[in-house]
Amino acid sequence: MNAEEFEKQADAKKEEIGVIEGELREVEAVLEQQQADLTNAEDAKKLRHLEAFSKLEEGVAAELTKIEACEEEKRECKESFGETLTEYEEKRKSLDAEIKEMKKKEAALIKWENDIGSKEQAFKTAEEVSVIIFALI
Predict the structure, then answer these.
(1) How far apart are CA 85 and CA 79, in angstroms?
(2) How far out from the chain centre does Cα 19 lie?
(3) pLDDT digits (tens, 9 = 90+) for 62-91
(4) In angstroms, rounded to a whole number, what is the distance separating the alpha carbons of residues 12 and 2?
(5) Which residue windows are coiled coil (predicted)?
């Protein structure tokens, strides 16, 4: 091979390398575009996931608020029940004390009535004796 043939081959290879460089640039441009598209798709997917997660968080927050309100209502009911129960027990004790006092008064009244009855009987007997004595005199 002579220098001229080498030069022709070198020129052909140079031209071939130029074509390959052009194709490589086209492939790189396509890859860059595909990478940009992929990045955009991933970003859109992340955004959709964030929006969906945000909605779920809102739902969870709303449910937690409802649960907290129910817990507060439950606590208030327990507190109210406790107060009502305490009030009932106090009234029951008061009524028990009143009943006990009434029974004592009833027993005292029965005793008093018996004493009066005995005295009345004694008085009638004394009166009858008196009448008999006055009748005899």
Answers:
(1) 10
(2) 73
(3) 999 999 999 999 999 999 999 999 999 999
(4) 15
(5) 3-44, 78-115
